[in-house]
């Protein structure tokens, strides 16, 4: 059409975009390393399912409408990319056709038909999106001018293309094609316009104008489309719509093998780490590049906060706001972060200590002037998280919120020594007696007195180690769960023993509150004992112990096959080792523990067991499975006061009461305590019995 | 013959029962008894000192002794002990006694034993029994000196009736003030509530009380008993009690003579804060509540019914 | 201001204590810093942080106490002295006080802070006897410290009738209650630095004294034997008519337990 103008637009548009992207990428490379290499196949698979397939958008029943809306806009956009390329070609060469997409090919026809209908669909979706934002106003959405602007631009893109094609149709069909415009007219497939009903419809809307006017409309719509697209491209990296570009790589680089990046094993002997304050995240430049990419990608859709137990009970933790604040802090410090990375590279090249000191001083100068915790993120925000992962499970672009929070807590605990001091008693208890209550370690096996349970020190020739956990050993209520589990194991003739007084807390809660040193101390001592007994298989009734033993002990040389008691009981039932009676009266529901469900994908086994004992079947709660609601005790919250907002366990207990349930089954000692406490608070502990699956099985076993 | 000097336990112008208990014990082992009373305007207590069982009364009555000050008070005790030539110097159980006994012992070059529950004499040989390691063990301690200064644990000895002694008052000259440790004032809790940490009786309220009305009901019991008023974590979480009232793992650790747990189930965190109490009374409607595993006395019942009766009964017994 | 803080390593009172033939069975026991002394350490460290005080701690006996002393370093104590001598095996409070007197006299301290008692003996004598030996003013059961000037501090003592406010002229001795503060949990930075610090370990001779000088040959008292104590267990639980059982229980509280 106008190669000169086209070239100019492309040079300016792409040049500016390239410059922005170069800086964004440079900033990422200046951040800390993250190992996201390899496993290309698995990564592609994730990308296809989650990003391209939009699984978390279309797959959520609760939000199918907006999910489909987004997916259609996204898919429409992908389809229209090809059309755009064609238009850019058109700018240079009249009648340009993309290879294989021309009128010689069936593909070309199919494509224009698809594009035609998609433009219509996208346009409808944009209208729905605007309606939804402006009229329906879902609570989770953060309404900004930016969102409307982008929707408007998408609308303009669709309308301009449709009008361009419509004007073109009118010129060709109504005005005898005065400019000899090219159109598909392969005799085998017929005229282009038979395939593009929407464009033809658009043409009808503007059929009343003259040939000249039609020509003008066509040309102006063409340039409007091109310019809008280039503007759009340049607008994307500036705000939340950057996700249009970064979602695919972000999902591609998602953590594999565990739902999110495991807490990093810190080298506690490394003194330079002290000086650099590089244990955990205390400064914005200590984010790794993937965490940076996460920030680029956050779309502010608000799904995270909608499912967040802290946010929904009025705690000052709003994850999309959290992301936003970090992102702006990252951008504000971008130049200094890049400079710092260059300095670090020089330091590595040069061993001279004087120089290193100088560099150190220079680096200190480059630190953000804001305290990451305090100025950017409020302390109470950081400590409100229960690490339940509900946010990560619903995030359409797989942002890993929790590891970042834990790393920041590490920074606060190990370096700033600023953490909720009510944790001290529990931490001290761990340090001295290996349990957060600080009860004498010598009483750890008292619960098993007279139960016939073997202790490893007496006889280590067993198939399984039963890892009892602190609650199962010391908490009067949870001891009943331990006793029930023992009954089941004995009935099924399982060969097992416990560590007795040699067992200590796995260190889970210490790690979640950022006390990496104490975690490592506990882990080291436990692993030494476990390896000394050559333990291969471990059963545990505590999902927190389960998760730590299974996923975190391997980091320190403890490799065991760990099984949660619900998985084992399920196996025992299926292999006929124990027989269950359908004898449980009253409605029954199951509360998924976060560290069993979302962290370890154990959803079916507990349900299968419960269905075998309940007369009335299993009634699901509104929030269950992947979107189950936390009890409020995870992430070390069990040992902190909950003074802001509504208490999380109460929120959950009310949900259960609202479902008119008689029995609540849980699979975690913390959930048991929290829910039972909630029931007591609501005065429902008589009507609604909260029990561990092991207790229910022991009572309903043949 | 043993000579026992008992330090009169005077609080706010009243002679406390422990004085008679200690004198009774002294008489029961056939000792010669004396008492030393220290304070300001305490002459009117002399008849009480006699009827408590003392045969000699050393009295240090001076305006400078109005407020407790360990140095001058110790000087009075040492003065009396020397005058009486006591070989056993006994204090009743109090914070002041614990401050005085080691000083007196050091000045007399005598052995000192605190919190004793019994004393055995055979000839010159003295032995005492006392708990240690947070009451987990009992020690039998041999005293190698001729003299022993001891603080007797509350309730260790019983007062016997009709052991009145004879009046033989010896005035002690007032000691010099300790200018290096000047007592300025004594603050009784401004709010009128008794501080949990040093209350003799603590009444704590738990989730069973449900709401503010329930809390107030239990608080009245605490007021009746002149007790510190604490709570379980649940009530603090529910916003019904102030944070500094929480007894337990993340709150205050208390060890009063009597701990009254009302509507508290006895979560392990709570028990960790109060299981050092001498006597525990629990009221809970759940007979299986863990609090009953540590309570010396348990009432299974609804606190809304039990607490008013409890108040009535306590009033009866105290009249 | 130079502060001397005393710390003692005691048996962890969370553990069950088993006895055999009148002595404590050591097997399975662990030893930790006395809780009251931990508060004394915390109080000293706060005076260091807020008032620039110099902090030294001293522990006596018990063999290798380096783990406990390093823990105190990690909390912020600057200097540690450990007096260990076989002659101190049967020492009583007076002997400990004599040893502390020697330590004090070598150091020119302004303030001695001790825990008000030790969890193993629950005696509560050493600090007060030390003050008597040194002829220094002393306040026990302190729950707050305020520095007035170089020569004076104001302390709150939890007394029988309320909180007593006492002005002390330095040098002085105070013994503190656990309610004075919540001791910090040493964190990594402190623990790392503590590893490198030296501990001044000496026997009585090195301290410039001798077992006889501090009275080791003639302790004023000695433990003959340990006996089992009654552990807390479920007492009497009453069910039935509220009025009846409540009256019964009140009667027992008054006449059996004698706590009313």
The number of distinct helices of chain A, counting runs of at least 4 residues, comes to 30
Structural class of chain A, by secondary structure, is mainly alpha
CATH architecture of the largest domain in chain B, by name, is 3-Layer(aba) Sandwich
Measure the end-to-end span of chain B. Answer: 41 Å
Side by side, the strands of the main sheet of chain A go 3-5-4-6-7
Radius of gyration of chain A: 30 Å
Strand content of chain B: 25-35%
Low-confidence stretches of chain B: none
Instruction: Give the strand tally of chain B.
Output: 18
Described by strand count, sense and barrel closure, the largest sheet of chain A is: 5 strands, parallel
Return the domain count of chain A: 3
User: What is the residue-averaged pLDDT of chain B?
Assistant: 88
What percent strand of chain A?
A: under 5%
Which bin fits the share of residues in helices of chain A? 55-70%
* Radius of gyration based on Cα positions of chain B: 22 Å
Series of H and E elements of chain B: EEEHEHEHEHEEEEEEEEHEHEHEEH
In DSSP terms (H or I, runs of 4 or more residues), the helix count of chain B works out at 8
Helix content of chain B: 25-40%
Mean pLDDT of chain A: 93
Task: Give the biggest sheet of chain B.
Answer: 7 strands, parallel
State the CATH superfamily name of the largest domain in chain B: HUPs
Architecture overview:
The complex is a heterotrimer of chains A (702), B (319) and C (260). In chain A, helix 11 crosses helix 14 (319-332) and helix 22 packs across helix 30 (693-699). Chain A has helices spanning 3-30, 40-52, 55-58, 64-92, 106-136, 145-174, 197-205, 211-235, 243-252, 271-275, 289-297, 303-307, 309-312, 319-332, 334-349, 353-366, 379-382, 390-394, 401-416, 423-433, 469-474, 476-491, 508-512, 516-532, 543-552, 565-574, 604-613, 648-658, 669-681, 693-699, and strands at residues 185-186, 190-191, 454-455, 464-467, 496-498, 537-540, 561-564, 588-590, 663-666, 689-692. Chain A is built from 30 helices and 10 strands. In chain A, strand 6, helix 25 (543-552) and strand 7 form a beta-alpha-beta unit. With 702 residues, chain A is mainly alpha-helical. Chain B has 319 residues and is of the alpha/beta class. Chain B has 2 domains: 3-171, Rossmann fold; 196-318, 3-Layer(aba) Sandwich (Rossmann fold), CATH 3.40.50. Helices cover 28% and strands 29% of the residues of chain B. Chain B has helices at 17-28, 46-51, 70-84, 95-108, 212-224, 233-237, 268-274, 303-318; strands spanning 3-7, 10-11, 14-15, 32-39, 56-61, 88-91, 111-116, 118-122, 125-132, 137-143, 148-152, 169-171, 181-187, 201-205, 228-231, 258-262, 279-284, 297-300. In chain B, the strands form 4 sheets. In chain B, strands 7-11-6-1-4-5-12 form a 7-stranded parallel beta sheet, with helices on both faces. In chain B, strands 15-14-16-17-18 form a 5-stranded parallel beta sheet. Chain B has a 3-stranded antiparallel beta sheet with strand order 8-9-10, with no helix packed on it. In chain B, helix 2 (46-51) links the parallel strand 4 and strand 5. In chain B, helix 3 packs across helix 4 and helix 5 packs parallel to helix 8 (303-318). The mean pLDDT of chain B is 88. With 260 residues, chain C is of the alpha/beta class. Chain C folds into 2 domains: 2-202, HUPs (Rossmann fold), CATH 3.40.50.620; 235-260, no CATH class. Chain C contains 6 helices and 15 strands. In chain C, a hairpin with a 4-residue loop joins strand 10 (152-158) and strand 11. In chain C, helix 2 (66-75) crosses helix 5 and helix 3 (93-107) crosses helix 4. The termini of chain C are far apart. The interface between B and C is large, with 87 and 84 residues. Strand 18 (297-300) of chain B pairs parallel with strand 15 (236-238) of chain C.
